[in-house]
Design a protein that fits this description.
Blueprint lengths: L3 E4 L2 E4 L3 E2 L5 H14 L3 E3 L7 H13 L9 E6 L6 H15 L6 E4 L36 H14 L5 E4 L3 H10 L6 E5 L7 H9 L3 E5 L23 H10 L3 H11 L3 E2 L9 H5 L8 H8 L10 H9 L8
Parallel strand pairs: 3-4, 4-5, 5-6, 6-7, 7-8, 8-9, 9-10
Antiparallel strand pairs: 1-2
Helix pairs in contact: 1-2, 2-3, 3-4, 7-8
Length: about 325
């Protein structure tokens, strides 16, 4: 049995398939294989550069009779260069065309970072740099008030292009502010969260606003080592606390960490490019961690944020732009 979170009249499966860093050459096949394995929740974004291939995988699975469109929960995200209200709907419509869908189940503001608009015909996805060919390429900030972007997001829901709207990478302060002006309240908050970054206060606060929380990078460092944003020694899977729980339950260390994420009440979106891991990442609902194990894993928290714009924007894009204090 797969746990689901009720959002309005719809159900968000607790375990999704994260599409960040999935190579375009294998995306369609991985998506179709994931659907065949039982996945019904897919987390995409314009910035990932593989939405067209994701759509091909979805359509292939539907044509093969693996599922119906209404069985799936498809999330995508508004990229930073499309924050001005006049660009929000075209950005969403581009994502829908690439995915081959009539609507999204969830559309999120990807970052509370607004960058100068880049036309689709010039470069898509636009990524972070305004002019990659410049002598010293940098991000170009376009200071759009977040309330203007949110109002445009609300119009997407009113138009039926998306069923639900939410935010990603928001702090508690930004959420409080959002709730003060939102006519349609956000229903989902997506944040980095794993045993080394538990974010308990933020999660508790989001839930007090009746928001479902999705944790990206639920296995921590694994997605970031290849990007030189984490060291292999930072893997939570090597923790003795996790290993003891894995030995007791007869599960892998990864399954223990993912189960911890689900059991604490968050949806999770692990990513894999290996088909043999699809079933493993989904097989989390026929065992439980004890209260002691849950607490011990939570105590591994060290506030280690791997996806931090204050670090990677300066290192990779020559622009210092923190969004967390």
């Amino acid at each position: 049995m797969i746990i689901e979170f009720l959002i309005g009249e719809d159900k968000l499966p607790a375990v999704g398939f994260g599409l960040w860093k999935v190579d375009r050459a294998v995306t369609a096949d991985m998506v179709r294989s994931a659907i065949a394995a039982g996945y019904r929740h897919f987390d995409s974004a314009a910035d990932y550069g593989n939405e067209r291939e994701t759509g091909n995988g979805i359509s292939a699975a539907i044509e093969a009779g693996c599922c119906k469109r209404e069985d799936l929960w498809i999330t995508s995200k508004l990229w930073n260069t499309f924050h001005r209200p006049q660009h929000v709907r075209p950005a969403c419509e581009r994502t829908l065309r690439d995915l081959g869908l009539d609507y999204l189940d969830l559309y999120l503001i990807h970052f509370p970072i607004s960058l100068e608009y880049i036309d689709f015909d010039l470069r898509y996805p636009p990524e972070w740099l305004f002019d990659p060919d410049a002598a010293e390429p940098q991000m170009k900030i376009d200071p759009v008030p977040l309330h203007e972007t949110w109002a445009a997001m609300e119009k997407l829901k009113q138009a039926g292009l998306v069923r639900h709207i939410g935010v990603c990478n928001y702090s508690s302060t930004l959420l409080h502010d959002l709730m003060a002006y939102a006519k349609i309240q956000p229903e989902v908050l997506q944040i980095e969260s794993h045993p080394f970054l538990t974010q308990e206060k933020l999660i508790r606060m989001a839930k007090s606003y009746n928001m479902t929380v999705t944790a990206f990078s639920p296995l921590g460092a694994l997605s970031y080592v290849s990007l030189n944003m984490a060291e292999e020694s930072e893997s939570v899977l090597e923790s003795e606390t996790v290993k003891r729980a894995a030995q007791r339950t007869g599960r892998s260390a990864a399954q223990v960490v993912l189960r911890w994420g689900v059991q604490r009440g968050t949806a999770i979106i692990p990513k894999t490019a290996r088909k043999d891991r699809l079933q493993e990442n989904l097989a989390l609902f026929d065992f439980e961690l004890t209260d002691e194990e849950m607490s011990a894993i939570a105590e591994l928290n060290r506030g280690r944020r791997f996806n931090d714009p204050a670090v990677f924007c300066e290192a990779a894009f020559n622009t210092f732009y923190p969004i967390y204090d």
